[in-house]
Design goal:
Elements lengths: L2 E5 L3 H12 L4 E6 L18 E2 L8 H20 L6 E9 L7 H4 L6 E5 L11 E9 L2 H14 L3 E4 L6 H8 L3 E4 L16 E12 L6 E6 L2 E7 L4 E5 L13 H14 L14 E12 L4 E8 L6 E8 L9 H19 L2
Parallel strand pairs: 1-2, 1-8, 2-7, 4-10, 8-15
Antiparallel strand pairs: 3-6, 4-6, 5-6, 9-12, 9-13, 10-11, 11-12, 14-15
Helix pairs in contact: 1-4, 1-7, 2-7
Length: about 350
């Protein structure tokens, strides 16, 4: 059986490892400069909300299929695996930009349960449309820890490694047949990838203590957004930003103030109905999402080991932007199919 090394220990890499191990691959190792438990702006996954939604437009059939497959797994986890921290969570979505609900923002009626359009008479001031729905949320620290536990229980490994400069370096060091590239923003830096389509998307949020919040809230006003995501552990993520130009690693107090004001307008209960001063703030957070022009890169290629002259397989799984969790399982299922395709071709 092939030896598989997954480069990148974010949610995409960890989920890919679980999927490959469950598919019967025995020798699977995840390596990363950062692993679950680390908190740095260079490591995207710990900063997520994370809600289980879909950011696919009605025209993006590929992402719709990926997110739909992912949603099925999260449904199973919510119903059967409480230790994963995934839980059912009702939600409400408002749009300030569309005059009427349209296919682009309501195709998710196929995905969410209990989907209902909100009558115009019930919308808050300034909102043009909206809907209620049921989906899932999770506690990111617990979920990442659960993924690591799942990998090790299936016989895989998660290892900290220093910064890797190339895919060839992975092959040299680990003597593997297959490399799964889940490096996110790192795909732009690897010497033998250099993906110029990658770009940062800065996200700033505020983590607050609000165990009474049991619903997720979203309000989309184009360039400005507000969201409130309960993690199920008593904490709530208030956000947020989607900034492709700001590179500041530190939380901006002015941005934080705007986030807290918008979230209070959306749901005063998150600050105990005491105004913006009523928030019980735990931390201010900044993370950089791995944006990619052209969307997720999911493809297989064959390369030649420069040292030994042997062929090896590279399968790419990166560029998930702000939907790493939402597309994680669907992408991992496709990684398994690409790896199996390579195994089949090798036998011909």
């Amino acid at each position: 059986m092939s030896k598989v090394v997954i480069l990148g220990a974010g949610v995409s890499g960890l989920t890919s490892a679980v999927a490959l191990l469950q598919a019967g691959y025995k020798d699977v190792t995840v390596i990363g400069q950062y692993i679950p438990g680390d908190m740095t702006t260079e490591y995207t996954s710990p900063w997520a909300g994370a809600s289980v939604l879909s950011f696919a437009s009605a025209m993006d059939k590929r992402l719709i299929e990926i997110d739909t497959d992912t949603h099925k797994v999260f449904k199973y986890l919510a119903n059967n695996v409480p230790e994963s921290s995934v839980q059912h969570c009702p939600g409400i979505q408002f749009y300030d930009t569309d005059d009427e609900p349209n296919e682009d923002n309501t195709w998710v009626r196929q995905l969410y349960s209990n989907f209902e359009i909100i009558p115009k008479s019930s919308l808050p001031a300034g909102a043009k449309s909206g809907y209620t729905f049921d989906s899932y949320t999770l506690s990111v620290p617990k979920y990442l820890k659960w993924l690591v536990g799942r990998i090790t229980s299936l016989g895989g490994r998660v290892l900290r490694d220093h910064r890797v400069g190339s895919l060839q370096e992975v092959v040299d060091r680990y003597q593997c047949d297959i490399v799964i590239n889940c490096t996110g923003l790192g795909a732009a830096q690897l010497n033998d990838v250099r993906d110029s389509n990658m770009h940062t998307i800065r996200g700033q949020t505020v983590l607050v203590d609000a165990p009474h919040i049991k619903k997720q809230y979203y309000r989309d006003a184009g360039d400005v957004m507000a969201y409130i995501i309960p993690r199920g552990d008593g904490t709530v993520i208030c956000g947020g930003t989607y900034d492709k130009t700001n590179k500041d690693l530190n939380a901006d107090p002015a941005i934080a103030k705007g986030i807290l004001e918008r979230c209070y307008d959306l749901c005063p209960e998150v600050a105990y109905n005491k105004g913006v001063e009523g928030y019980k703030i735990i931390s201010h957070n900044v993370g950089f999402r791995p944006g990619r022009h052209g969307g997720i890169r999911l493809e297989r290629e064959t390369r030649v080991d420069a040292v030994r002259g042997k062929k090896y397989t590279v399968v790419h799984n990166y560029g998930h932007s702000s939907h790493g969790y939402q597309s994680s399982w669907g992408s991992a299922e496709r990684i398994v199919k690409l790896v199996k395709m390579d195994t089949l071709m090798a036998k011909l």
